[in-house]
Amino acid sequence: MVVPGEVTAGVDLKNLTKKSITLDTNTKAIHITLPHATIVQAPSIDLKDIQTFSSEGMFRSDVNWEEGFQLEDLAKQNIKKDAIQSGLLKTAEDNARLALQDFFKNLGYTVTVTFK
């Protein structure tokens, strides 16, 4: 069975506090401590693009809906696991770092980002 899916990861900025940001106006440097990236949306499956291969032929005589739901749950778990193992969380952190550095660079600041 081939199950195409999507997983979204990101860095949640809503819990940042004043303690998370250190600003030095003399050197125009900012240090930001961010939480580690997490999966921010449950994995989704594109049901219309699922491909199933079976030794029973292309179609089975009976449809087992419970088996289908279990396979969907298993596929979502595997998609999430595979995404994390392939470096999705690191990519999300790298993207957050670059976005902040680029934003503040336009204001003349250098930014150091750490994840905790």
How would you describe the overall organization of this protein?
The longest helix is centred in the middle third of the chain and has 21 residues, at 65-85. The chain has one domain. It is built from 2 helices and 5 strands; from the N terminus they run ββββααβ. The chain is an alpha+beta fold. It has helices spanning 65-85, 88-105, and strands at 5-10, 21-24, 29-34, 38-45, 110-115. It is elongated and about 70 Å long.
Summary tags:
5 strands, 116 residues, 34% helix, alpha+beta, two-stranded antiparallel ribbon, 3-stranded mixed β-sheet, 26% strand
How many helices in DSSP terms? 2
- From N to C, what is the helix and strand string? EEEEHHE
The description of the largest β-sheet is:
3 strands, mixed
Helix content: 25-40%
Taken as a percent bin, the fraction of beta residues is: 25-35%
Question: Terminal Cα separation, in Å?
Answer: 38 Å
As laid out across the biggest beta sheet, the strand order is 2-3-5
Domains (count): 1
The shape, in one word, is elongated
Structural class: alpha+beta
Number of strands: 5
Unreliably modeled segments: none
Question: Cα-atom Rg, whole angstroms?
Answer: 21 Å
Mean pLDDT: 84
Compact overview of the structure:
With 116 residues, the chain is an alpha+beta fold. It has 2 helices and 5 strands; from the N terminus they run E-E-E-E-H-H-E.
